[in-house]
What does this fold into?
Amino acid sequence: MLPLVVSSIDRQTPSIVSVVLEHPDREQLPDWKAGAHIDVQLVTRHERQYSLCGDPADARRYRIAVSRAELSRGASHYVHEFLRVGSRVHVRPPRNLFELGPAERYLLVAAGIGITPMLAMARELDARGEPFTLVYLVRDESEVAFGDELAEWGDRVRVHSGASDGRLDLAGMLAGLDPGTAVYACGPARFSDALSAAEAGGVLPAGCSLHLERFEPVQRETLPDEAFTVVCAESDITLQVYPDTSMLVALSQAGIELPASCRRGVCGTCVVPLLDGAAEHRDSLGADAASGVVYPCVSRAPGGTLTLGI
Amino acid sequence: MSGALEAFGHELHEVDLAEIRATLGTPAQGAFDKITDHLDENCLRFLAHSPFCCLATVGADGACDCSPRGDYPGFVRVLDERTVAIPDRVGNKLADSMQNIAATGRIGILSFVPGMTETLRINGRAMVTNDPTVLAMLEQDHSVPDLAIVVRTEQVYLHCGRAILRAGLWDAEMQDLADEVPPAGRIWASMSGLDEEVGDEIGRGVGLAYRKLY
It folds into this structure.
């Protein structure tokens, strides 16, 4: 992990602060592209994922933004109350599970703190001279973060305030897209679920695509947590995963320590190759029978056997 | 062991309160002034960085208990300047602390920050709760506790560091002391009337169990 130092903290809204991280000796940081996130470990050892929302061209700074969770599990509370300029944090190098793909035009949709990856995407598309529109949903105007930066893009940015503009018809917005539009969206679970549902309902015009980044786990019905068997092909270890234990913990008990961060199937840190067996994928990253990977923090194989490439 | 006292050839003299005061003198006013009834900014910062505390509780019969609690720093969550919440994590289900709190509603907390010689003492009234809002805030590693202890502070003060300095508690080299103590499995086996081999087996099992902390 990279040992970094907080070089500035700015209050963006009553509930969002942005935090800039630098190397203590101002060394260059690993590069990244829009959509990338970093895992930040606080001095309290709480580790959370934050989308990078600064300028990818600035190789000496990472900027993140942290929303104070109403029922903080510790990290956002700490960032808002106790983190200060000079505080040390540890950071895993950027990873990108939400990369911009090629498209004729782009619609970026952010809700609340979901503005962070969208800000980086808008900056990248702007630098590439590609056409984009950014729709930013907030509950009211006081919740607009990075307002001065968004103003640079003039009418390409549309702020939709629930308090003054009412509810935005997301399905209608998708249905009215120009052909060849790629939609990139990030926001809380209800927002992502509404977009997924609209997509599943077939509203997307031909040639359009929807790409979602989730920072909360997808809520889904799962099979019961029955025991299953895991074969680790490379280390030649076979183990049982019992109902009250995750595959990740069972592997750790067998002496196979994997890097892990969110433990909720969101961040992708603990990904392992899946060589054989039908997994019940419970992650929020979209692993399926074809992806050849499994996220052992949440996924299982009730009653079955999984062969992993570790 | 009991033989040692008998070897003195006399009974222990019990010192009463008056004699204690006569021996130690009266504390300076400054010692009282440091005691407050709530958590100030500095105390909040102390608790936010504390991964460990000891809970002292008392049962209805006056019998006392002291037990350790450890977790990610800040696990003693401040709800307001007079209220903190402490999660109840996986344990042996004896629930001595909870039982005592349910009976008497009293608690004393001694909080530590590794590397810091002073400790924070919080005494007050406690209750056990399963309030979903409080429990949600105490989630760790995808695990929400079933119960939490909520404490209303009555006395809050920073305890001086002499005890920890005398102990060398944070000196890494002091950890060679642990090499001279039997491993936990053997201690448990012996106390349960089992032999050493069983103790080593218990030790191995507990080593695995320790990998699942939440």
